[in-house]
Each structure stands twice: as C-alpha cells, then as structure tokens.
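User: I'm preparing a small set of examples for a lab meeting where we compare how different chains pack in three dimensions. I only have the primary sequence for this one, and I'd like the structure in token form so I can line it up with the others. Please keep the answer compact; I'll paste it straight into my notes.
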Amino acid sequence: MRRRDEGKRARVCRAAIVLSVLAGQARFAGAEALPANARLLHPAERMAVGRAILGASHKLAGAECQGLLDEFADAEGRPLRAALEGQNLDAEAYLGRVLFYDTPPEACGGLALAGTHLVGSRVIRVCGRRFVRASTESSSHAEAVIIHEMLHALGLGENPPTSAHITSRVMDRCRR
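Assistant: Understood. Below is the structure token output for the 176-residue chain.
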C-alpha cells in the first residue's frame, strides 16, 4: 500500500512540475499563443521555432518583405507569388500551413538550422538545439530562416540561388 501511495505522489508531483513549466511557457510566449505548426517534441525547441514563426509572420505582413515573392521564382520561372495566388492564400496564411518538425540530431551536420527535403514540400525539418541557440543570438536571423524555408516550400530551388543569397535577401527585405 505504501509503495502505491509513493507512486501516486510521484505522479502528482510530476504533473505539478509539467503544469508549472507549461504555465511559465505561456507567460514567456506573451499574449500570442504559439502556432500549432511548430511540431517539435522538446518544449524549448518548439517555443523557439514558434516564436520565430510568429515573428516571420509579422514580417511577411510588410510590402517590402512580400517583395521576395516577386524576386524569387520556381523552377518554371514563375514568381512565387503565383504559387500563393494559385492557392488563394497570402504569405502569412501560407506560413501557417507549413509544418515544422524535428530533424534527428545525427542528421544535423553542417551549419543548417532547418531544411526542406523536397522543393515544394510544406514539411520543414528543424535542428532544434541549434535553432534555439541561433534564435537566442538573433531572433531576426531565426525569422529569416523560417521565411527562407517557406520560400522553398513555395517552390524556390537552390544553387542557384545559394542558401546564403536567399537568407541575405530575406534579411534585407524583411528588416521590420
């Protein structure tokens, strides 16, 4: 009987810890709830990606940032804006449909924070620990990575343009 009581106390204690962590995360995230499309398993990584998605969405509301949709084109030469119009969406709504998942740590070699495996796929794989560090150092850079990957999801290929060029253009146009 005593052993069962200790097990029950341990479960109650764990539940209280989880609830207090979640309450702290909600306060830390601010008034806005984190987006549901940040689907990483670890709470700190999910929060970092969620905050970057929110920041990227705010930046995409600006006309200068939206200019990326005319600056970059898909493999057939169509501006990325045409892909959005074909879906009857704006950039912010489309970003809400892009899904961000964990990349296994062993697949996080190199410097990439996130990536699409197929151009045009709405699934983005994120190197969570690395993304947390990068977003702590520069939230603007983390938001630029989110927008960069969204452009790939819309159909932008790479090499050319290089990854560095894409991120640089995002940083330039989406400074807000």
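A couple of notes for your slides: The first helix runs from residue 2 to 29. The first strand starts at residue 99 and ends at 102.

User: Perfect, thanks.
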